[in-house]
Target: Biotin carboxylase
Amino acid sequence: MFQKILIANRGEIALRVLRACKELGIQTVVVHSTADADAMHVRLADESVCIGPPPSRDSYLNIHQIVAACEITGADAVHPGYGFLSENAKFADILAAHNITFIGPSGDHIRIMGDKIEAKRTAKRLGIPVVPGSDGAVTDQKEARRIAAEIGYPVIIKASAGGGGRGMKVALTEADLEIALQTASTEAGAAFGDDAVYIEKYLEKPRHIEVQVFGDGAGRGVHFGERDCSLQRRHQKVWEEAPSPALNAEERARIGGICAKAIADLGYSGAGTIEFLYENGEFYFIEMNTRLQVEHPVTEAITGIDLVHEQIRVASGGGLSVRQEDIKFNGHAIECRINAEDPRTFTPSPGTITHFHTPGGLGIRVDSGVYSGYKIPPYYDSLIGKLIVHGRNRVECMMRLRRALDEFVVDGIKTTLPLFRDLVGNADIANGDYDIHWLEQYLAKEE
Ligand code: ADP
Model:
């Protein structure tokens, strides 16, 4: 087992990882920017190293500084959290070259899944159902027209290097195709330095359903069921739940089994999430994330398994603590992402939190790095906390969520709490009846 883990992140996820390390008796080092000297993870860590000024590229993305911090403190492993360097293959390779363990998959697996064309090809080869579309990059209009006619309109043009929902264009008919292909490719080139794009069928009313997987790196793979993350705004998840209100046990076992086998065959190591669009009873792979997700706690709530413990165990060579048959699903869980944003316009609302009171009681978990008197720096993303609620079934979970939202107090800044108080009283949400467009349509109506 590791003696000392360096946590290369900030905010709630740095604290989340720190807690797991403490439970496992592992010493912790955190790195932080000058803007985060007062952060909770810095206060609670055994050691901390300031690695640079506020901008992420000079601190949380500064590989040389982070490697130096490992060497100074004698850390033998790095947990990257999510975002920042968590899906940076070069970072994983550099750590390996310094004999420091990256708590995550190999650089090669990160590289494959970071290239969406390659990821889709790999998924298909491993028997995962994919969205019908081009086999690789599409460059000329004639080929694009042929493929689009074959799969049928509408189609979507996506950037191979895409991320965060950028570089996508929908073509409803052949008349839109030429412009869509051109603009997607130009935008991709400008945003990612890679103009390769591919075509796939555009699904009109899908849900976003993702499967949590784990590999031990030695040919064993398991799945921890799915999460439904269909409630999104600008492709950013807002509310996540497990299990999905749309799946039955047979579908869960089928798609979970396919994913677990794929992970085993790939020889994958650590945590991963295989993301699908789901429509009319069919699953369509869109991408794989090779890291821990923001929404992992809903899976922890219904399985009772600490996924960060598992990541650390697997990375240290100790293997998974569970076999597939040990993983049981119990009840229902919902996560609300509480952002420091105006709940109507979603503009960021940094500033000082004058009062912070979190709800408690059975089935309530709050993962947050903030506290009363904390000043939210303007440099990073606006997530200030996650409320995760568990109940024996979805009805009990929703009742408990409504009560917890009423108890939650964040004064001094604007937050998205009022949005969740609205959603929890909405009939479609109560019925689990929503797709990936539902939230934006709802917000447009409210305006
Ligand atoms: P990114 O890595 O940029 O987040 P994804 O491939 O995960 O890109 O897609 C992000 C979102 O774009 C999906 O959650 C979905 O809302 C939409 N999307 C992507 N592909 C399709 C498709 N084939 N049909 C309909 N919507 C899609």
Summary: The longest helix spans residues 174-192. DSSP finds 15 helices and 20 strands in the chain.
